[in-house]
Each structure stands twice: as structure tokens, then as C-alpha cells.
């Protein structure tokens, strides 16, 4: 099958119509709770095992490629699978339908948050969600550690990355770039030092015919134009100091450097939006993550919440509610347009990318560094949630008993009772509500 851009996708299995595929992508979008691991598992079960629309090897190759790219791997995988079946339009439909349910939910939750969060009932629910985020994040770190930290070197790298981010405030892009470059150099050095080994790759195959490169250039140009059009409009209308231009530029950077999915984005967003720009507070960051966990779709939609708060608080020329919605839509646009672009650029070469010498090692080192950044994020959120400043003989930092109790409840549900994320969020939010109303 040939796409409108001139690239070639695999032929669709007989009987798979575009409308049938769209119904499945929407179903996946509505069922995609629980973070990227659960979302990828749902796609594998439905697309590979039940429908048999894509074979196992093609699915794994696509997953490896998506893990190598910046951005949300689950959404990118859905886009690639849609591209495999029906070319460019299929990829666009699959990716959009995967995002749409969660995006609409987050938009509604953002409006409710800005309008009603000071009401005791709402503040209690948010307090419980903040506490629930901590064991959920810790569980994600443990799961990632088992997959990522395969050697002592990778463990050391994760620790150094955590310290560099938490104590030295090293920017996230610098951490990712340094880890990737070091991994690539390490791989090249080891390969050069052991050329007698039979498993050292030989000359790499060419990545396709000339018309594919031309099509890739077209995808790149169109993607860049769509990506930056809102930023140019904000610049022309309100200038470089406009919060829409500044936030759009920031989320555009995040779309380029955040390898490792949503939790990596959170580390970078917290570092910049909270610590550097001061657009929102740590507690608001935790609220956004808790709300994103309650909705379907990619967890990276938390950036939509951050954009909403930023626009609502600092947007000019519009009523606060409309400014918040505009900020949310801008953040979503500049986050996902690059994500689609990466996939449409790499999809034709997905079978060749894993064979590039040094790419696998670079990805492993980047993943370890990202894990360290996620750990630093968890420690920072734990500090803001569990520790309070008490005016006792000066300012004394003390453990917040209510927050600790709800966090322990979330930990018991997560590890002892093996409850799903939805139950953890529901129970902790209910406990926060009860405490706020009774105390």
C-alpha cells in the first residue's frame, strides 16, 4: 500500500476496512488507562493476538523504534500501527483517536480545577490524588528499573542522573544528550576494540530508494510548518514575551528532548515550568499528574493541564477561562504534532533503525538517565506532598500525618493488594475527601 506522501506501508490484511480500523483505534483510546505499559499491552492483545492485523515481529520492531524516539511511545505505536494498515490517513486516525478521549477529559478537568479547586470537597479530592501519585510513581520506577538497569554501569548512570538533576539542577536536555552521546561513544569504542567478534555489525544497508527520502523531506517540512504555526501567530499577535509564545516554545523543546515517555516529560516540565519559569507550583504539578492518571489516553496529556494553568494564570487579552483553554490546546498541539512527525518520518525505515551501530547502547544509556530524572521528580513531589513547614522555634520541616497516612494506604493498595491504578486513585481521593470534610 502506498501512502499519499509516497512512502510504502505494508498491505492491509484482507477485509480490514478503514472504518473498522477506526472503530478499534477509538476503542483502544477509550480503554487506554494505566500508563504506557498497560496501553501497549492492550494494543498487542487487540491488534496482534485477536485481530491478527500485524504480526509479532512487526509489532516489536515498531515498539523498539518508538522507544528510541522522543515523545509518548504508546501514542506513537498506535500511529505506526495505523500507518501500517492504511498509510498516512490510517496513522493520523489511529493517533488522533488514541489521544482524543483523554484530551477532552483533561480539558474538562482543567476547567473544573481552575474554577472549583478551592471548594473543600474539591481540595480534598485533589489532596488524596496528590498522595496517590507517590506510590503510583514509585511503582513505575520499580517496573522501569527491572527493564532498564541491566548492568551496574546503567545503575550508576541512573544515580548520577538523579543527583545531577536534584542537587545540581542540570537541565534535562543536557542529561539526555550527555547520556546518549556517552552510550554511543562507549559502543563504538568497544566495537573498535573487539573487531574480531563475529557479532560486530558489518556495513549497514541503505535505507531505501531516493523517492522515499524525498517523501521524508516532505513530511519533515509539513510537520515543521504545522508545528510552529501557532508559535508564529502568538509572536505576531502578542510578541516574544507572550506567555503563549513562551509556553509553546517550552513544550516544543520538551517534544524534542523527552525520551522515555510521560514520566520523563514530567521531570523536564517540573524542572522548567515550576522551578525556572514559576508558571505553577509543585502541588499543582502533582494535581495535574493525579488528574492525568484518572483519564484514558497517554499520560503525557499532563502537559495539557500545565498549559491550561499557565494560560489561565498569565494569559492576556482573553477571559481567564478562555485563556486557560487556549493554553491547553496550544500545549497539546506542540506536543503531539512533533510526535506524529517523528513516526511518519521513521515508519518506512523501522526495520533498519534497530541495526544502526551504537543506537541500541545509546538508547539504553538514555533510558537509564531518564530513570534517574524520574526518581528525582518523585523525591521532589514527595517533599512537597509529605513535608510541611511548621512555625516552631523558627521554621521546622515536619512530616504531614494526613498525607503520610493516605500515601501508605496507596502503597498498600499498590503492592500488597495489587489493586489497579483506578482503585488506588479512587480510594486515596475518597480518603482525602473524608479528611477534608471531617477535620
Question: What do these coordinates show?
Answer:
By secondary structure, the protein is mainly alpha-helical. Helices cover 74% and strands 2% of the residues. It has helices spanning 18-31, 35-50, 56-68, 73-116, 120-148, 152-166, 172-193, 210-238, 243-257, 262-276, 282-293, 302-314, 320-346, 359-386, 401-416, 421-438, and strands spanning 387-391, 395-399. The protein has a two-stranded antiparallel ribbon with strand order 1-2. Helix 5 (120-148) runs antiparallel to helix 16. The longest helix has 44 residues, at 73-116. The protein is globular. The protein starts with 17 loop residues before the first helix and ends with a helix.
Chain oligomer state: single chain
Which sheet architecture does the biggest sheet show? 2 strands, antiparallel
Count of alpha and pi helical runs: 16
Helix content class:
over 70%
Distance between the termini: 64 Å
State the shape: globular
Alpha-beta content class: mainly alpha
Give the overall pLDDT as a whole number: 81
Number of strands: 2
Strand content: under 5%
Parts with pLDDT < 50 across at least 5 consecutive residues: 1-8, 194-208
The side-by-side strand order for the widest beta sheet comes to 1-2
Order of helices and strands: HHHHHHHHHHHHHHEEHH
Computed over alpha carbons, the radius of gyration is 22 Å
Question: Brief overview, please?
Answer:
With 439 residues, the protein is mostly helical. 74% of the residues lie in helices and 2% in strands. The protein has helices spanning 18-31, 35-50, 56-68, 73-116, 120-148, 152-166, 172-193, 210-238, 243-257, 262-276, 282-293, 302-314, 320-346, 359-386, 401-416, 421-438, and strands at 387-391, 395-399.
Amino acid at each position: 500500500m502506498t501512502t499519499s506522501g509516497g512512502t510504502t506501508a505494508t498491505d492491509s490484511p484482507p477485509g480490514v476496512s478503514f472504518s473498522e480500523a477506526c472503530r478499534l483505534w477509538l476503542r483502544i483510546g477509550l480503554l487506554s488507562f494505566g500508563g504506557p505499559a498497560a496501553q501497549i499491552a492492550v494494543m498487542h492483545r487487540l491488534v496482534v493476538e485477536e485481530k491478527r492485523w500485524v504480526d509479532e515481529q512487526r509489532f516489536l520492531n515498531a515498539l523498539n523504534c518508538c522507544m528510541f524516539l522522543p515523545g509518548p511511545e504508546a501514542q506513537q505505536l498506535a500511529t505506526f500501527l495505523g500507518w501500517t494498515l492504511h498509510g498516512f490517513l490510517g496513522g493520523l486516525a489511529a493517533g488522533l483517536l488514541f489521544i482524543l478521549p483523554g484530551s477532552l477529559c483533561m480539558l474538562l478537568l482543567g476547567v473544573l480545577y481552575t474554577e472549583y479547586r478551592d471548594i473543600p470537597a474539591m481540595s480534598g479530592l485533589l489532596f488524596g490524588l496528590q498522595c496517590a501519585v507517590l506510590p503510583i510513581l514509585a511503582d513505575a520506577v520499580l517496573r522501569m528499573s527491572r527493564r532498564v538497569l541491566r548492568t551496574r554501569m546503567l545503575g550508576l548512570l541512573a544515580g548520577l542522573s538523579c543527583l545531577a538533576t536534584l542537587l545540581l539542577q542540570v537541565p534535562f536536555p543536557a542529561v539526555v544528550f550527555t547520556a546518549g552521546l556517552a552510550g554511543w561513544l562507549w559502543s563504538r569504542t568497544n566495537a573498535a576494540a573487539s573487531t574480531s567478534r563475529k557479532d560486530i555489525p558489518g556495513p549497514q544497508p541503505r535505507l531505501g530508494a531516493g523517492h522515499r527520502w524525498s517523501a521524508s523531506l516532505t513530511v519533515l517540512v509539513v510537520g515543521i510548518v504545522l508545528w510552529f504555526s501557532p508559535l508564529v501567530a502568538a509572536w505576531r499577535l502578542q510578541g516574544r514575551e507572550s506567555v503563549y509564545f513562551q509556553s509553546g516554545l517550552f513544550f516544543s523543546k520538551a517534544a524534542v528532548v523527552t525520551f522515555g515517555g510521560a514520566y520523563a516529560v514530567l521531570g523536564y516540565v517540573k524542572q522548567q515550568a515550576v522551578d525556572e519559569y514559576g508558571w505553577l507550583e509543585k502541588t499543582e504539578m502533582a494535581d495535574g499528574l493525579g488528574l492525568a492518571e484518572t483519564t484514558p489516553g497517554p499520560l503525557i496529556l499532563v502537559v495539557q493541564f500545565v498549559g491550561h494553568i499557565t494560560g489561565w494564570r498569565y494569559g492576556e487579552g482573553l477571559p481567564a477561562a478562555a485563556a486557560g483553554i487556549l493554553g491547553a490546546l496550544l500545549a497539546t498541539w506542540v506536543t503531539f504534532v512533533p510526535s506524529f512527525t517523528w513516526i511518519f518520518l521513521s515508519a518506512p525505515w523501522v526495520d533498519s533503525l534497530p541495526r544502526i551501530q551504537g543506537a541500541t547502547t545509546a538508547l539504553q544509556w538514555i533510558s537509564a538517565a531518564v530513570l534517574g530524572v524520574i526518581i528525582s521528580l518523585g523525591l521532589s513531589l514527595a517533599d512537597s506532598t509529605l513535608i510541611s513547614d511548621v512555625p516552631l522555634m523558627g521554621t521546622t520541616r515536619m512530616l504531614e500525618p494526613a498525607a503520610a497516612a493516605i500515601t501508605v494506604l496507596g502503597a498498600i493498595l499498590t503492592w500488597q493488594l495489587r489493586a489497579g491504578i483506578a482503585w488506588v486513585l479512587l480510594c486515596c481521593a475518597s480518603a482525602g475527601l473524608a479528611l477534608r470534610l471531617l477535620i
